């Protein structure tokens, strides 16, 4: 019988709050599996370091803060990412939907990704803008 997935709720909540806080520089957190337990494996500021956290042979979750808007209205948006690498087994891939329910709180936009090229800052901004409603001003973005 397969063990059910558990959550380091205190560690995950602390990392989530750190990303959401306007008082810290943390822009992202990554959550990975340690056997059957999901916990925060890394957090930081630099997008390339965020991108480097995802490997072809693993499943993970990411949470990232991205500033969107234009010259008249800047706002922070948050994106929850479900990562299933291309080399993950069919069984582990199928288990991801139930494992996601263990960690998922409520996120503005969620993307499920499986190709490292999809972890792209401009793509994330585009998805957040699509979900974000009205944009005011000239459309010139200073991010």
Automatic annotation (TrEMBL):
Coiled coil: none annotated. InterPro entries: ADF-H, ADF-H/Gelsolin-like_dom_sf. SUPFAM superfamilies: Actin depolymerizing proteins. It comes from the Eukaryota. Residues 4-129 form the ADF-H domain. This is ADF-H domain-containing protein.
């Amino acid at each position: 019988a397969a063990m059910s997935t558990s959550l380091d709720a205190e560690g995950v909540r602390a990392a989530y709050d750190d990303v959401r806080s306007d008082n810290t520089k943390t822009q992202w957190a990554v959550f990975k599996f340690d056997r059957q337990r999901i916990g925060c494996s890394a957090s930081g500021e630099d997008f390339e370091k965020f991108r480097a956290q995802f490997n072809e042979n693993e499943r993970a979750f990411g949470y990232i803060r991205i500033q969107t808007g234009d010259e008249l209205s800047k706002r922070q948006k948050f994106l929850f990412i479900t990562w299933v690498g291309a080399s993950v087994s069919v069984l582990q891939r199928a288990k991801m939907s139930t494992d996601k329910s263990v960690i998922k709180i409520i996120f503005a936009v969620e993307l499920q990704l499986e190709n490292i090229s999809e972890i792209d800052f401009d793509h994330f901004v585009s998805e957040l803008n699509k979900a974000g409603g009205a944009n005011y001003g000239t459309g010139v973005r200073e991010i």
